[in-house]
């Protein structure tokens, strides 16, 4: 028996929805089989007993809800191909059955059309999402369908995050406890100095990701914002007025916004031959108000979800909405800190250098962004005017992509980044400071030179992994080669680096 498509794949082929990506494709075949791909997609074959008894759109929607990955934007595309009358007739046959209730709820949520039934829905309340398969939000009782709506958002903005094995492993880490252990493992003065330094490092890294060099005044403004992370209620934090104030505080005054953009924005790259590669088309401006309202509501809807998930939903939801012409990336990274502080993972007055880790691992950061932008760019249609403006030609078709994203990849990326930042980056910074004072004393015993010269010497040795770089020799004209070699040796001893055989 040949394999035949079922569930979402059947629906995709039946309704010719080929521009939609499916992360889980199912077949009916002679025996059970599953194949995993490097990009995270799955092809699964189910035995004959799983084949729907009646092959129609509703039986395949039911199969999809049971076994495939939930894609709200794909489900909406399917519903748009089915008449309201057919939906009413299907649900009326058994309105209190679980999957009829699911389909009714999703249909009304996604299409904004009401399903009129002659019989009321009865039965116990059932959870909409299976918390073993998905990250779930704060449940809200839907009395119409007797469903506990535990989605992560609402009609305006509702991401889906699959609880993959890799993500679940990361979510088991007690980040709060790891931070507390760090505070106990180092002297208070070392920890305090590290935090002061990390605020500046985080700020400069966030700007450097955007390839910008901020003025000292803008650095201080951003640091001031970071120290206030987690203080404002969610409905104030993500209000247009407050986000505009944040944007004004971190960008060049010439590019300060007065509110959300009222034009079509995009992210591109200019090439030497004057051509431009467009990497991402932002949501059309007429969607922004409702999209940002949905993002604000998600702060409440995600209460109770793991803090790193909330941080991913809000921060990546914001940057993909791209409500301003400039400053979106920096606000995106500020929101990560805000949500982690808000949920008590990071204590008030402490910062973890997430941006610094991103900067040092840019391919992974870019990949998390491209996991969202690349599928969109394969579907969005646009024209570019002679003046360089972008006009989206199929905005209604791609609207649901912005409203109902799968943020599983971004959530995994952020969870991994935060854990690595705490366990590796912060530990490295603390260890560096712990040994810094000792190295400074050792170098000063070799040559009693000014503090700024000692600091510069240590910085060069640290940056070059304990080896003094010859290209920096002219910056220490008063030192002999023997003295520099001795300082290099002292540094390596303090930082417990192996000796250099040829030189020592």
Strands, total number: 11
Let me know the average pLDDT: 92
- Estimate what percentage of residues fall within beta strands: 5-15%
**Distance, first to last CA:** 73 Å
Q: How many helical stretches?
A: 20
* CATH top level class name of the largest domain: Mainly Alpha
Q: How large, in whole angstroms, is the Cα Rg? A: 27 Å
Total tally of structural domains: 3
Overall 3D shape: elongated
Low-confidence stretches: none
Second CATH tier, the architecture of the largest domain: Orthogonal Bundle
CATH topology of the largest domain: Fic-like fold
**Which structural class do you get from the secondary structure elements?**
alpha+beta
Can you say what the CATH homologous superfamily of the largest domain is?
Answer: Fido-like domain
Helix content: 40-55%
Strand order within the widest beta sheet: 1-2-4-3
Biggest β-sheet description: 4 strands, mixed
What does this structure look like?
With 504 residues, the protein is α+β, with helices and mostly antiparallel strands. It has three domains: 4-163, no CATH class; 166-259 and 285-382 and 394-424, Fic-like fold (Orthogonal Bundle), CATH 1.10.3290.10; 447-494. 51% of the residues lie in helices and 8% in strands. It contains 20 helices and eleven strands. The protein has helices at residues 8-14, 57-67, 72-79, 84-92, 98-111, 165-171, 175-185, 188-209, 216-227, 234-237, 240-250, 288-301, 307-321, 328-342, 354-360, 362-377, 395-403, 408-446, 451-463, 481-494; strands at 4-6, 24-28, 33-36, 42-46, 126-127, 140-142, 147-149, 266-270, 276-281, 382-384, 390-392. It has a four-stranded mixed beta sheet with strand order 1-2-4-3. A three-stranded mixed beta sheet has the order 5-7-6, with helices on one face. Strands 8-9 form a two-stranded antiparallel ribbon. A hairpin with a 5-residue loop joins strand 8 (266-270) and strand 9 (276-281). Helix 8 packs across helix 9. The longest helix is centred in the C-terminal third of the chain and has 39 residues, at 408-446. It starts with a strand and ends in a 10-residue tail after the last helix. The mean pLDDT is 92.
């Amino acid at each position: 028996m040949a394999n035949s498509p079922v569930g979402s794949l059947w629906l995709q082929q039946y309704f010719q929805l080929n521009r939609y990506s499916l992360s889980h494709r199912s077949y009916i075949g002679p025996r059970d089989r599953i194949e995993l791909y490097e990009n995270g997609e799955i092809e699964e074959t189910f035995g004959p007993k799983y084949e729907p008894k009646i092959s129609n759109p509703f039986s395949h929607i039911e199969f999809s809800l049971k076994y495939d990955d939930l894609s709200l934007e794909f489900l909406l595309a399917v519903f748009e191909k089915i008449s309201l009358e057919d939906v009413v007739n299907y649900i009326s046959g058994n309105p209190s059955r679980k999957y009829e209730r699911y389909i009714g709820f999703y249909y009304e949520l996604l299409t904004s059309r009401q399903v009129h039934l002659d019989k009321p829905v009865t039965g116990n309340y059932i959870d909409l999402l299976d918390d073993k398969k998905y990250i779930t939000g704060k449940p809200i009782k839907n009395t119409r369908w007797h469903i506990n709506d535990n989605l992560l958002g609402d009609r305006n903005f509702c991401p889906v995050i699959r609880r993959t094995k890799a993500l679940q492993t990361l979510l088991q880490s007690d980040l709060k406890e790891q931070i507390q252990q760090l505070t106990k493992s180092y002297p208070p003065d070392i920890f305090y100095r590290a935090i002061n330094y990390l605020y500046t490092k985080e700020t400069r890294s966030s700007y450097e990701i955007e390839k910008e060099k901020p003025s000292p005044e803008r650095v201080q403004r951003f640091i001031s914002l970071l120290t206030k992370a987690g203080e404002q209620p969610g409905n104030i934090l993500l209000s247009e007025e407050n986000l505009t104030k944040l944007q004004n505080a971190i960008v060049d005054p010439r590019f300060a916004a007065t509110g959300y953009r009222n034009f079509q924005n995009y992210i591109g790259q200019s090439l030497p031959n004057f051509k431009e590669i467009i990497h991402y088309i932002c949501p059309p401006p007429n969607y922004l108000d409702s999209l940002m309202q949905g993002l604000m509501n998600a702060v409440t809807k995600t209460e109770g979800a793991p803090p790193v998930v909330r941080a991913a939903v809000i921060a990546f939801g914001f940057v993909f909405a791209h409500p301003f012409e400039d400053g979106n990336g920096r606000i995106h990274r500020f929101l990560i800190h805000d949500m982690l502080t808000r949920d008590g993972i990071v204590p008030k007055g402490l910062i973890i250098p997430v941006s610094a880790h991103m900067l040092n691992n840019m391919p992974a950061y870019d990949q998390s962004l491209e996991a969202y932008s690349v599928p969109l760019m394969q579907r969005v249609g646009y024209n570019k005017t002679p003046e360089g403006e972008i006009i989206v030609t199929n905005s209604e078709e791609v609207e649901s992509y912005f409203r109902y994203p799968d943020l599983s990849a971004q959530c995994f990326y952020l969870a991994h980044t935060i854990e690595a930042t705490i366990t590796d980056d912060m530990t490295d910074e603390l260890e560096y400071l712990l040994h810094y004072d000792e190295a400074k004393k050792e170098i000063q015993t070799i040559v009693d030179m000014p503090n700024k010269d000692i600091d510069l010497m240590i910085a060069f040795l640290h940056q070059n992994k304990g080896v003094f770089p010859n290209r920096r020799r002219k910056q220490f004209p008063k030192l002999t080669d023997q003295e520099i070699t001795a300082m290099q040796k002292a540094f390596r001893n303090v930082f417990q680096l192996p000796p250099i055989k040829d030189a020592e």
